[in-house]
Amino acid sequence: MTRLIALLLSFALAAPLAIANEPTPPALAAKAWLLYDTSSGQVLTAQGADERIEPASLTKLMTAYVVFSALKAKTISLEQQVTVSENARKTSLDGSRMFIMEGMPVTVNELIQGMIVQSGNDACVALAELISGSETAFVSRMNKEAQRLGMKNSQFRNVAGLTADGHYMSPRDLATLTTAIIRDFPEYFHFYSQKEFTYNKIKQPNRNRLLFIDPSVDGMKTGHTAAAGYCLVSTAKRGSRRLVSIVTGTASDSVRTAESQKLLNFGFLSWETVKLYGANASVQTLPVWQGKADKVSVGFTKDLVLSVPQGDAARVKVQLESKQPLKAPIAKGAALGSLAVTLDGKPLGNFPVVALEAVEQAGFFGRIWDAIRFWIKNL
User: Fold this and answer.
1) How far apart are CA 34 and CA 197, in angstroms?
2) Cα angle value 353/354/360 (rounded, 5°)
3) Is residue 185's pLDDT more than 90?
4) Whole-angstrom Cα distance, residue 323 to residue 290?
5) Which of 296, 286, 300, 274 is nearest to 352 (CA)?
6) In the predicted model, what is the mean pLDDT of residues 100-129?
7) What is the Cβ-side half-sphere exposure of residue 337, based on CA atoms within 13 angstroms?
8) Which of 21, 90, 276, 350 measures 20 to 30 Å from 74, CA to CA?
9) Is the pTM of this model over 0.90?
10) Is 22 inside a domain boundary?
11) Buried b (16+ CB within 10 A) or exposed e, 171-202
């Protein structure tokens, strides 16, 4: 016999503002955009989230991801001296450059700053040749990493973001990649907040103007070509919340800055992030039959966090559903039900709950006794 066990809970969380309706996102003077909350994993607003756009130098986020992976694998080091090839020196002489020269000493650390802070195309090629032997081989690694990360609308033809047939990304994929860099390589994230870098006696400022006007912004990358327009991936942290903004296809540097600031402010002011349950915290205990224990705690292995309109957290409700009977043995981490989350009766999502501990099967006589109890209970 299958019976539904439901637990109805309501969360009365303090909210500074009471907003009756879901916040209306701002209108942006851009081709495509997306705003992402890294804690909840939710997209707060977007236009053209999965549209394949020319990414220009936003490509260098993936170039950096592969470089950081090589550093983590210890196949290269920050202090390592790099031999600059003629090919790297000549790369896009009319584009952004670090101004590396053949025969002039340069380290991996300097090349990373040249790639990120100065957006140097030449630095990207030098790093690619160091790690993979050629730009072509390195680009293959970029595409493999994109597939591994689940970036379904991204494909790379070069390391710098030069215009090329079949070279594209989407705003959603850019958010995925940005979040992966922050998560996987926190030790190198500081490069993205660096405001200037000097190499070969040439000082260049970071092109991300938000770094200079919003103290909560700590990254990440600008991009521009004639075909792509002016693009900006920015990330900001206010309190415990981190948002990622993707703005592409604007008309100028000042417009991409203003529209990105507008999008970040909308996210922080109009939305709040609510932790419903902490990792490994018991949501409920459920009865177990024929086990050495007669109940099992269920919950989540990671924090369950949601983004809701500012002021609406008190109206969030959850309902736990589990199929019964649950019979031992039950493995730790086994899915035992789901938590339905609603706001004012409208669904926000269903989230699987798992066993937080294992329950071993009882001995022969224990199983017989439980079988008798179960039979009597369901007469």
Assistant:
1) 29
2) 150
3) yes
4) 16
5) 300
6) 95
7) 28
8) 90
9) no
10) no
11) bbbbbbbbbbbbeebeebbebbbbeebebeee
- The pairing of strands 295-299 and 282-289 is antiparallel
Catalytic residues: 57, 60, 119
Q: Using an 8 Å Cβ cutoff, are 33 and 48 in contact?
A: yes
236 — phi, psi (to 5°)? -140, 150
Token pair recorded at residue 183? 């998560």
β 42-47/32-37 pair status: antiparallel
- pLDDT score for 256: 98
Length of the chain: 379
Counting the structural domains of the chain, the total is 2
CA dist 28 and 51 (Å) reads 16
Query: Which residue range forms the structural domain that includes residue 320?
Result: 3-15+276-377
Provide the 8-state DSSP code for 40: T
Q: What is the mean pLDDT of residues 119-141?
A: 97
The domain boundary, picked from 187, 215, 250, lies at 250
Q: Find tokens 């990493």 and name the residue.
A: 145
Bridge partners of 42? 37
The rounded distance, in Å, linking the Cα atoms of 310 and 270 is 5
Give yes or no: residues 141 and 284 share one domain.
no
Helices 60-72, 135-148: crossing angle, 10 deg rounding: 90
Q: What is the Cα–Cα distance from 206 to 27, expressed in whole angstroms?
A: 27
The residue to which tokens 């991300």 are assigned: 208
| Alpha carbon distance 145, 172 (integer Å) | 16
Q: Are residues 244 and 359 in the same domain?
A: no
Q: What letter would DSSP give residue 2?
A: -
Q: Tokens standing for 250?
A: 């604007």
Q: Are residues 243 and 351 in the same domain?
A: no
Which residues face 225 on adjacent strands?
229
